[in-house]
Amino acid sequence: MLHTLMQSPYKTNISLLISVLKKKDDFLALQDGVLIALTNNIFLESIMFTSANLYLIKEDVYARGIINNISSDFMLISYMHFVSLTLKNKIQMTW
């Protein structure tokens, strides 16, 4: 399953999102959702504990000027790779 976070983690029910993430799920943050990958934020340890595959849209990270402050547990990907994730995951949930 692909979970996409499009808004700030502070405006989303992150505890619910994290509770439904499974080990083989893909998690992608884009737009303001990329803030979840900031080092030392309150959600980071919980989302890393899920063992889901963690991705960020690199254009959104750069647009917010946070490239030097994101966790190395997230993989930066392009929108092209985002399309590949949607094709791979027949079931998707947007947060």
From TrEMBL:
The keyword Ligase does not apply. GO terms for molecular function: transferase activity. The keyword Cytoplasm applies. Its main location: cytoplasm. Pfam families: DsrH. One of its GO terms (cellular component) is sulfurtransferase complex. One of its GO terms (biological process) is tRNA wobble position uridine thiolation. It is found in: Cytoplasm. InterPro entries: DsrEFH-like, Sulphur_relay_TusB, Sulphur_relay_TusB/DsrH. Keywords: Cytoplasm, Transferase, tRNA processing. Transmembrane segments: none annotated. SUPFAM superfamilies: DsrEFH-like. Part of a sulfur-relay system required for 2-thiolation of 5-methylaminomethyl-2-thiouridine (mnm(5)s(2)U) at tRNA wobble positions. Belongs to the DsrH/TusB family. Heterohexamer, formed by a dimer of trimers. The hexameric TusBCD complex contains 2 copies each of TusB, TusC and TusD. The TusBCD complex interacts with TusE. This is Protein TusB.
